[in-house]
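User: Hello, can you help with two protein structures?

Assistant: Certainly.
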Amino acid sequence: MPKRQKSLKQGLQGQVRIIGGDWRGRKLPVPFCEGLRPTSDRVRETLFNWLQFDLPGSRCLDAFAGSGALAAESLSRGASQVLLLEKEPRVAKQLRELLTELAGDQAQVLNADTLQYLEQESKEAFDLVFLDPPFTQGLLEPTCRLLEDQGWLAESAKIYLEIEKQAPVQQLPDNWSLLKEKEAGEVRYSLYQRASVNANISAS
């Protein structure tokens, strides 16, 4: 492959635009990486309308960070802290450089396999969690179980799920309630809210 073509292929596949908050209109570079699929502007606009009153001061976890668009949108709209998990080293490195420039120590990017990382008991509970895993790899259900079982979620945490529209119904923790759900193109996206296990026991 000619040097210039190789350089282009290893470079950027495009950009995503922050659609609200302090950084509205800013464009984020998206590295070329097989399977990387940024959440569309249309879906992000709907999601962050759902979350507009939850974001200020919130602690967020972006468990399959990819382009970083969900994390950046959260910080732009007032989230106090965001932890991003990204398995691909080159993508994680770019995210770290980008978000350090934008948000300083409000953003922490870890080059980590999400399931392995979430197997440890959490030292901090998150108010909002974004789950947009690679399609067709069966990652959503085990990720949700680990979030619940290992203490990653605040008592009334909200959890965003994005999955292919044709995927089978997911088996989610019993104490998660569906708040919102929509479809766009080939994607189904949902917002759930967690109730504490103790509250469920008291109500039964």
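That covers the first. Now for the second protein you mentioned:
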Amino acid sequence: MGSTRYIASMGELTRKDNSLCFRKDGKNVYIPIEGTKEIYCLNEVSINTKLLDFLSSNNIIVHFFNYHEGYSGTFYPRDKYNSGRLLVKQVQAFSEKRLDIAKAIVKGIGVNICEVLYHYYKHNKKEVKETIDWIKNEFFNRVDGSSNIKELMAVEGEVWQRFYSDFKYILPEDFVMNKRVKRPPDNPINALISFGNTLLYTKTISAIYRTHLDQRISFLHEPSEGRFSLSLDISEVFKPVIVYRTIFDLVNNKKLKVEKHFEKKVNYCLLNEEGRNIFIEAFEERMESVFSHPKLKRKLSYRTAIKLDCYKLIKFIIEDKEFIPFSLKDGM
């Protein structure tokens, strides 16, 4: 799937000459190093330091997932894109302009949720108009009026909540969500959202790695130890566009079915292997799908759009050029 390799089975990943070799059940599967930028380990995979050194010298990122399809962590090659000047500026922006950047991100979330809902409004789901009107008439004013991050996060929480409450008009009954439950997800829709958000988060980690931004200094989310919080910031505006549109398409076109593609245990629900493969394929297709960028006058993929948002943030930090995250409506 493009520059991304997914490993869904248990096995051992090693270096073999100038290639990667995945060994499972006594058989070898060779993965060319050429063109590989990131690897997803979705099962128990054994590795050694010789392999890590090889991955690092080829700037390949590896994302690890646990049994509950949750994100465990990332092997991150040594930073070759370090920039002391930008780091100083990024810290400065956090102390002086954090609220401005955070407001831009939350507005971006609202713009893209509105656009996704409008698609369904046009297709006779008139009930979603209430949320669309609330976003247009109240949400943006409340974002502008927020005087601190806590107030802003409350408005962000409300726009997501209203979006979730509209799922009953968009999805069939067996995929309706009572409430958002994350760790672990407790029903099929929560399982899809958690897995999709985690894939997007890790895609954003990979995008940021290839810029000079520092992953640890975020603006909307609190910078915290143990996670790349800037990836949470950058990925937020893409969730409605990439994760939720993928979910709605797969469910409404009956490519994912509750009885066929999920494992339900006592207090959690996960995609089974077939369901996971279907989701990954659709997610990758969406990442690679293109749209026309009005300013650049060329076609871009959503994968490139994520990286472009990183560069927009750098422009704001260094040149004070207004930061407007990706908008589905404007295609930029």
